[in-house]
């Protein structure tokens, strides 16, 4: 059954790729567009300036179709920022336990969208001299953190954890299991790309051991307190999942849009690291940076499917989009050419690890509004 499912998904993406090859390509935006008149909400409090639809240049006649699509597909929160200001902020449905309406104060899980937050946390730890991403992971986790021969374990660097190239055997047991007996050798680090949760999750222990702080405490100190986020990491079996409000996610998106700078505070001032994080980090899957998805590339490898497809992350979205993406449609989309951040939280009917078809359909609706 699983093999048949993967074949079906593969055929869908092959067809999707061929379809797009016949269509006119979305023109590439001018690179390195300057950020002009960027607004940052105060670190404390709920104040956040807004921008009118007219100022943003939106086609309001297309908004109903966008909102209907989002609500029909079980969206809880949707926010769009332009130049840092809120253009739209909508909430639907109930909170996570179903006993009240979902509001701006409701917390929701990020799922794998939290990976991009971890990428920035790791970069800050390197900036502070606590670690180097070219260090062996065993420097911080100790020898024997995997069940590999030691000479193979020693090939795994922090950078491999950031780029999904650890070489661990994804056919053995659960890809969430972080116990050493679950972490078996498949291939040398850096030679294969696979969306494997366990090495990513262990980055939290790497940062924790390097900093001497709990992961929540280091996240607070390095990012949250500087930009006004108030989320938290909560353990769920082997995973450690970030929970926050949609506005917290928007704050993180705005930090990403401004390349790690919040107003006048350089949260991540290592521009080389940020550039590597938001560009192709290896040749195996050019649509992946450091725990960050990238649009506009010539090919992509999808979660749970070790095959490369000749299509981009989201053909309907602007080519320069980069994103934190999580299960059930947790999206932090950043579009530098538009000075735009798009946040979506909720569930989706297909329950995908990273629901890219839904993401692309969402962008088709957004395009009608913003005039792409």
TrEMBL record:
Pfam families: Beta-lactamase
Keywords carried by this UniProt record: Hydrolase
Hydrolase as UniProt keyword: yes
PANTHER family: BETA-LACTAMASE-RELATED, BETA-LACTAMASE-RELATED DOMAIN-CONTAINING PROTEIN
Protein name, per record: Serine hydrolase
Gene3D superfamilies named in the record: DD-peptidase/beta-lactamase superfamily
InterPro entries in alphabetical order: Beta-lactam-related, Beta-lactam/transpept-like, Diverse_Enzym_Activities
């Amino acid at each position: 059954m699983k093999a048949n499912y993967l074949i079906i998904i593969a055929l869908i993406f092959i067809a999707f790729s061929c379809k797009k090859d016949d269509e006119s390509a979305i023109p590439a935006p001018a690179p390195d567009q300057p950020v002009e008149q960027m607004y940052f909400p105060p670190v404390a409090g709920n104040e956040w300036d807004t921008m009118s639809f007219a100022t943003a240049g939106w086609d309001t006649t297309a908004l109903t179709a966008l909102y209907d699509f989002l609500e029909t597909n079980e969206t809880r929160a949707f926010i769009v920022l332009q130049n840092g200001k809120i253009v739209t902020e909508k909430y639907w449905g109930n909170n996570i336990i179903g006993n009240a309406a979902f509001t701006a104060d409701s917390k929701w899980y990020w799922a794998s969208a939290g990976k991009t937050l971890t990428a920035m946390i790791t970069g800050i730890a390197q900036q502070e001299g606590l670690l180097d991403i070219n260090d062996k992971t065993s420097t911080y986790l100790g020898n024997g953190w995997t069940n590999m021969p030691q000479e193979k374990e020693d090939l795994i660097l922090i950078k491999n954890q950031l780029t999904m190239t650890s070489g661990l055997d994804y056919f053995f047991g659960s890809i969430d299991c972080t116990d050493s007996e679950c972490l078996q050798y498949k291939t040398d680090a850096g030679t294969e790309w696979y969306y494997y949760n366990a090495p990513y999750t262990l980055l939290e222990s790497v940062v924790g051991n390097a900093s001497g702080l709990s992961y929540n405490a280091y996240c607070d100190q390095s990012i949250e307190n500087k930009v006004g986020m108030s989320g938290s990491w909560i353990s769920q079996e082997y995973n450690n999942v970030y929970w926050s409000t949609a506005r917290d996610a928007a704050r993180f998106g705005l930090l990403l849009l401004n390349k790690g700078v919040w107003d006048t505070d350089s949260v991540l001032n290592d521009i080389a690291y940020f550039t590597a994080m938001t560009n192709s980090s290896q040749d195996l899957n050019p649509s992946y940076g450091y725990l960050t998805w990238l649009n506009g590339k010539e090919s992509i490898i999808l979660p749970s499917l070790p095959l490369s497809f000749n299509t981009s992350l989201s053909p309907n979205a602007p080519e320069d989009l980069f994103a934190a993406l999580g299960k059930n449609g947790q999206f932090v989309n950043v579009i530098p050419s538009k000075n735009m951040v798009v946040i979506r939280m909720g569930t989706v009917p297909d329950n995908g690890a990273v629901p890219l078809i839904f993401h692309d359909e969402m962008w088709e609706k957004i395009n009608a509004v913003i005039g792409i």
